[in-house]
Amino acid sequence: MHLSLNWLEDYVKIPRGVSPEELAEKLTQHTVEVEKIEKQAQKFAGVIVGKILEINKHPNADRLQIARVDIGSEELIIVCGAPNIAVDQLVPVATVGAILPNGLAIKAADVRGQKSVGMLCAEDELGLGSSHEGILILDKAKVGQKFADYLKLDDIILEIDNKSLSNRADLFGYYGLAREVSAFLETDLKDLGISEIKLEANDKKADLEKLKVSVKDGKACPRYMALKISDIEVKDSNPKIQNRLIASGMRPINNIVDITNYVMLALGQPLHAFDGDLIKEIIVRPAKPGEKILCLDGEDRILNENNLVIADAKEPLAIAGIIGGEKSSISNTTKSLIIESANFDGFNIRQTSTKLGVRTESSTRFEKSLDPNLAEDGMKLAVKMILASCPKAQITSHLIDIKNFDEKAKTIKLSLTWLDNLLGMNIPKPKVLTILENLGFKVIKDEADELNIEIPSWRSVKDITIPEDIAEEIARINGYNNIPSLIPNTAMIAPILDSELIVERKIKDILAGANALTEVMNYSFVNEEDLKKANIISSNYLSLANPVSQQQTLLRQNLIIGLLNNVKLNQYQFDNIGLFEVGQVFFNIPGEFKKEAKGNERLPHQEKHVAIVLADKQADLLGRLKGKVENLIKILIGENTKIEFRPTEFNLGFASSVTAATIFINKQSAGIVALVDKSVNRNLGIKTNTAVAELDIPVLVKLLGASSNNYTEVPKYPPVVRDLAFVVDQKIMYNDLKTAIETFDPLISNVELFDVYSGKSLGDNKKNLAFHIIYRDLDKTLTAEEVDAVQAKLLETLETKFEAQIRNF
What range does the domain containing 727 cover? Predict the structure, then answer.
């Protein structure tokens, strides 16, 4: 947005001591960012008024002419293709080195063998209009005069960014910015001078024309005002209005269109003028699907039911709040007009503007949610200016004013003590009251520590809604730089450690590091078909009310199904697959209370698990997986952790009881490990052997917390290691035999299984279990005789209990 200081001073007096640079800095500090300061005359640096002395045909081009031009200090030879130049004309001449407003840099050039120094300028090249039909011809100019002086350009322009930070609807007009300047400079804001404007005919005749207006969508159009003015004269605007528009980056067109643009820039309220003789009825309605309109920019646009239009009984006349239609536009023959001042829903305008790919000054303002009360101010200022521009014009209709909004003012209570605590400083109460008054707020109740504040309508739509918003207004006008920079006097409290999260991270590090596994993350959903393939009953699974797809209808109760599907997807790219996942599982039992629910509704119970899958065609897959589980547990909890794999007591479904075991850690059940049944692999489309393990993380957290990290002294006396191989029945479990050995005598400090064998040489239904048995006495060195005595009794006990025989063949 371009801000003309000359225009701004129509509404607020800027003290003499405040330079444009200082004003720009204060605007940036208090209200909106000023991106650039530009003297208006700089746009035409190097453009001089010249007089054409002589014109000759170009010898090598039929459409080109060679002009000799006097610019006062010298005469220039310029090649020109414009058809309208003549001797003695005064024209704008861009000299070598000038950069025109359209970005064209002027250089000396050779044109068809003729040297040309400079350029004669058309209207569009100077940014003064869109015409390129010929060179701009000047009146009452002096040869050698700077073109900026000819235009009387003495303004300074501030380029404002009201989008990235502030984005305030009330700052898209000069008067809104003037209000801000008056607040932080503490100077008076001038009155608009429109309060006395009457929106009615001078002679209240009974035969005044009645405009027929209806609004079909009150939400999309909270307010619609219309008034007919007759006996107008379409002509050029007066120089002041034209200069103000040019300074603000807009092109003058004619007095009526210029007035609507002037009001929009002055107040931030877009207007639209229709040719009054072409319209019999106005209907504000949603467009019909496929409806078309030829817009003022010459583009045909196809509309849909989400677009709001201004229409007559037959067709759309304008796209509401965005762009007018060609059919009802103001032309040189227009004798009467209907002026529209309305308010439209910001969301609808933004949606329509984006969908149609058309963004205008009008839509930019409406999409910020303008104040509906602003429509009346816009109408009054427009009527005042039209009647001044067209002395014979008169109002010839009753005012139409259709309201669909709440006119009640909003109020907010503000505690001054709370304000001081929030800002970290004390702003005296008189200062607070002055700031609020200058910004248009009204204090309707003033108590010792509390103010009841009425929000001005231009800030109440979506801007000021809570006490913090008012605190921000006070702070920014008082100056953010005035807030003292103090180190907060706050006690530093160490954050509460999440033990489960810490264990989870350690697990991931161990499995991805020492165990060389790859982490995966699956959805928390499974489907009945996959559970059926894995021989798992799904009746107790929680079903989703609104599943993402038919393949994700249930909440999972284990991580294994997801990992097996990962194996299926990756088996053709890798021969050996090792994956793990850490994630939530969900059970159909009551969990924690749902805080936002009424009554005793509970969330389902959920907990974190870690699962591992190995897949390859090598032997002893289950043994290798058990090794990785042991490695994880010992690194996580401690080397002395007791780990047992006992026969599982429940049906896993996807594995038989022979190839599945429950994992016990320090005698506490913590998970399962199993070789997946080949039939399940086939059902799931897996071509290789798979083994899976799943551990309960809350159990691991509990075990880790209970484990002792106390220092254990290294034994002074050496151990005695004996290797014994026992032949037992196949039904004898390894853990039972190992436990019997470990608990037989205090001198037995550790037992390790190092070999399992079964074959014909052992006999039917027999197997060999070989153990390292470690004997140690912490107080002395054991003798062979002492170890032999303990071992002899051990063999007798094992033979009696398990029919275990020492293998000596």
Answer: 720-806
Residues sharing a CB contact under 8 Å with residue 442, sequence separation 6 or more, in sequence order:
436, 453, 454, 456
Any idea what the CATH number is for the domain that residue 13 is in?
3.30.56.10
Distances (CA, A) of 737 to 25, 144, 320, 733, 771: 87, 115, 88, 7, 10
DSSP secondary structure of 493-541: -PPPP-HHHHHHHHHHHHHHTTT--EE----SEE-HHHHHHTT---TTS
Reduced to 3 states (helix: H, G, I; strand: E, B; else coil), residue 41 is helix
Asked if residue 322 has pLDDT above 70, the reply is yes
Do 562 and 697 lie in one domain? The reply is yes
Query: 698 and 550: one domain?
Result: yes
Map 730-757 to HEC letters.
Answer: CCCCHHHHHHHHHCCCCCEEEEEEEEEE
Q: Which of 274-283, 591-600, 616-625 has the lowest mean pLDDT?
A: 591-600
Q: What is the CA radius of gyration of the chain?
A: 44
Dihedral over alpha carbons 183, 188, 190, 191 (to 10 degrees): 90
**Cβ atoms of residues 590 and 605 within 8 Å:** yes
d(CA 710, CA 706): 12
Is residue 362 left, alpha or beta, with left meaning phi > 0 and alpha meaning psi from -120 to 50? alpha
Q: Are residues 699 and 780 in the same domain?
A: no
Residue 488 lies in a domain: no
**Residue 593 predicted with pLDDT over 70:** no
pLDDT in tens, 437-458: 999 999 999 988 999 999 999 9
Contacts of 234 (CB under 8 A, 6+ apart): 254, 255, 256, 330, 331, 332, 333, 334
User: Tokens 């400090």 appear where?
Assistant: 749
AA identity, residue 435: I
The total number of structural domains in the chain stands at 6
Summarize the confidence of residues 220-231 as an average pLDDT: 95
What is the sign, positive or negative, of the torsion defined by CA atoms of 284, 285, 291, 296?
A: positive
**What pLDDT score was predicted for residue 101?**
84
Question: What's the CA gap between 377 and 267, in Å, rounded?
Answer: 8
- Domain boundary pick from 482, 516, 536: 482
Residues 293 and 331 in one domain: yes
Q: What's the CA gap between 525 and 503, in Å, rounded?
A: 24
